[in-house]
Design goal:
The chain is an alpha/beta fold. It is built from five helices and eight strands.
Length: 205
């Protein structure tokens, strides 16, 4: 029986994951990150180790970036994701990369954009994905997203989806290479919003 994805250490990085990391390296080099953070689970820390070797960066393990555990409520995932984002912003690094999991990373994007937080699947069933939320970002294994903070705006962009694009792993169905249904209005590649953190007096934003 395979290891549960939300139970430490979780499954190791697969050969597909290694290929996805290889594809992500050129995109990350363009951003010139000065720090590299990772979830403590095996597949993400192993991914970060490969990226760190390619980029010449040490890996900083952050428990707040861990996978959404089945015992957690969505608001708890949002709280720790927002906590990590605030701590990183307070640290003053000009650019950093974070290796994590779809739900927590999507939570970070929504927090940065001041968008409502939605569960991205129906009834806590990962096989019934809900994609038509207000942001319409579609995080997948090996995808790369960018958040840019400026004085007046915050912009989130989808920079890269790997090939093959693996969306979800199911013990019953194995690897799934496409979403269960398309979004009604298509996938967003970029969302730019006012920097509401500055507007409400949050100095880190």
């Amino acid at each position: 029986m395979g290891k549960a994805g939300d139970e430490p250490p979780g499954p190791p990085l697969s050969w597909i994951g290694v290929e996805q990391i290889r594809q992500a390296v050129p995109w990350l080099r363009r951003g010139a990150p000065v720090a590299l953070y990772s979830s403590p689970l095996a597949r993400t820390s192993q991914s970060a180790a490969l990226l760190g070797e390619a980029l010449g960066l040490p890996v900083k393990i952050e428990s707040d970036l861990k996978e959404w555990h089945r015992t957690e409520r969505l608001y708890q995932v949002n709280e720790r994701s927002a906590r990590w984002l605030r701590q990183w912003l307070d640290g003053g690094e000009p650019c950093a990369a974070a290796v994590g999991h779809a739900s927590p990373l999507l939570s970070i994007i929504r927090t940065a954009l001041f968008l409502p937080q939605f569960c991205w699947w129906q009834g806590n069933d990962p096989e019934r994905l809900v994609l038509d939320t207000c942001d319409r970002f579609e995080p997948a294994m090996g995808s790369l997203f960018e958040i840019v903070f400026e004085p007046d705006t915050v912009t989130a962009r989808c920079l890269h989806h790997p090939r093959p694009r693996i969306i979800h792993y199911s013990r019953r169905k194995g690897m799934r290479r496409s979403f269960g249904r398309p979004t009604m209005n298509g996938q967003n590649r970029m969302v730019c919003r006012p920097n509401y953190g500055r507007l409400i007096g949050c100095p880190a934003l």
